[in-house]
Amino acid sequence: MTPLRPRLELLDAALVERVLGEAFALLLDPGVRVRSPEVAELLAAAGASVADGVARIPEGPVRAALVTVPHEFALHDRAGDPVVRYGSGEVHFDPGSSGVHVLDPETLEHRSSRSADLVRLVQVAEMLPQYAAQSTAVVCADVPAAIGDLYRLFLVLLHSDKPIVTGAFTAQTTEVMIDLLAADAGGRRALEARPRAVFDVCPSPPLTWTEFAGSNLVALARAGVPAEIVSMPLAGGAAPVTLVGSVVQHAAECLSGIAIHQLARPGAPVVWGGAPAILDMRAGTTPMGAIETAMIDAACAQVGRSLGLPTHAYLGASDAKIVDAQAGLESGISAILGALAGIDMISGAGMLDFLLCQSAEKLVIDAEAIGMAKRLMRGVETPTETLATAAFREAGLEGRFLELAETNRLFRREQHLPSRVIDRVSHRTWQEAGALDTFARARRRVDEVLATYRRPVIPVGVEAEMVALVRGEARRAGMDILPGVPAR
Amino acid sequence: MTTEMTSEALFEAMRRSIIDGDDERAAELAGEALRAGVDPLRAIDDGFVIGLREVGDRFSRGDMFLPEMMLAAKAMKRAVAVLEPELDRRAMKRQVLGRVVIGSVKGDIHEIGKNLVATMLAAAGFEVHDLGVDVPFDRFVEKAREVDADIVGVSALLTTTMTGQRTVIETLAAGGLRPRVKVIVGGAPVTREWAEEIGADGYGEDAAQAVTVARRLVGAADAAVV
Q1: pLDDT band at A1 (very low <50, low <70, confident <90, very high)
Q2: Domain residues for B58?
Q3: In the prediction, which pLDDT does B1 show?
Q4: Of the residues B89, B122, B137, which one is the last residue of a structural domain?
Q5: Is the pLDDT confidence value at A412 over 90?
Q6: B83 and B44 belong to one structural domain
Q7: Which of B159, B160, B207 shows the shortest C-beta gap to A284?
Q8: Which of A148, A210, A238 comes nearest B112 by C-beta?
Q9: What is the mean pLDDT of residues A223-227?
Q10: How many Å lie between the alpha carbon of B188 and the closest alpha carbon of chain A?
Q11: Residue B23 has pLDDT above 90, yes or no
Q12: Dihedral sign computed on CA atoms, order B6, B10, B11, B12
């Protein structure tokens, strides 16, 4: 008997249809701004009317794209195993990406992130099984901006075996990043067969494909490298104020992106993803931890799934500035909601301050929320023949359940066993252990995790190829040393 | 005495129209003031601006919200537009705190943050020239020269376009406008360290702070906060 899988659905079938109907209507009027001539040509050739940088896209080519787009694909680890299976119904998590700060665990300062910080974050995420994938978690301030994107990927490749959620900043560096991944995979063909990374590509709200975002989508499709459309309607600011209106805009942005992507190369893998948020009407900020943000995400994913598409969202992040109660509740609630919504890839763990600040300590706490979410997703199972009567036959009215073989056999599956970040000891034991709060326990846990970290075994030739590639790019950008690269 | 009463009632209605964000009503009251021969500067300073200040105060206290503030600013704009021809005719000029040229830097098409700052600055009494998005570096310089700007505001939401803020400052310097023309920078990835590194004069975490910084730069720091 399969357990009932808990599922959060915020839209009924009729509303999903209305969302898609209005999204298709938006693609025709007002249409979509496309700033890349290449993208405009692709769309025009497929029947869109393009004038003054605006493409009005009829339903036909979009429907055609929805026929060719893959419903499932996998990201592979270094060993070539398909560990992230988009579209499989399994929920995966990865740390939030592209922070510009890290939370200093000693001073609680938000300081500019550097290569060493990225390496530390990667090492922590590598040792936590809750993270199915790595992300290029922070921008490195000690690396020239011109190669910032490729250098992040390079450091993750050097320090991790896991799949990677990444993204490029320019057309030139996209090519180098694909070369790096090809070197890692053993050639372009191997990379296409067993992709390791997915590239986030962001349309700009509302309904705009910038020159780079549009051409990036095309380049990734042609290279057969998975792309993840990260649409970011900002409800009330750069999107309608209603949650459902923002869901419509998200659908229109994703549909137009999928059309562009599939026109460039039918069958290339792409994800219906997003980082929507509401606009905070007091502070003018974009709260990622707001319940409405999670609601938009869940609804957007539901629309994507109704089309059979792999999905992604930004959840499990908080807008708190330190790892405090707000950080815990926002991250935990939204991770649970994302899991219940059945989203294939949920990015955002570790993040504070509107996705600006990463924290390794928060990553280990968020891993606990993710562990709980994954447990919830397995639902209430029925692993025994009788639900309880057989156990009672053995345990009797004395209730000696702790001694039963069944208890020993099943407790690891029935219970999520948290790390010591979660405090469940008696008050006295807690006091004797130093009366540590969550953050202090997380700091200790980060140290433990780092102590067990071992760098992946990378074939010498492969590593040399990657280093040579990046060394050349670094020199051109005016950087002679390679920070964060371990000595062999 | 009756006239005085009437104009006090009129001023009160003006303030209310701004607080309510009722642009129709604000324009109507501005027209009424002109017909009644009320000094247009007094209509602004004793009527509409007081309402706007109230909106700013309430916003700072968290009792009013951005959409209400945007509507108040819009109502203010419509009222001033009605009064402007009369101001011109009388060769009067509304006292401005300073002139600001603002835009999202080249390559960046994000405008919400920039629009918020522009609206807040305008509401606070600055003359704001909004260049829009994806603004070439030279354009900031040209416009700053054209309007004799006190402040240039450069917005960037992407780590990739943030470097353009430095270029704007360099271009202003090359054009001989620095340090007379002050530069404020903003946007999600912008940090205080970055602002210092590129030699910007000011940086705000949000639109309200941007106004505080701008006021400080034009020496209006201790004037009432709007």
Answers
A1: low
A2: 2-89
A3: 40
A4: B89
A5: yes
A6: yes
A7: B207
A8: A238
A9: 97
A10: 8
A11: yes
A12: positive
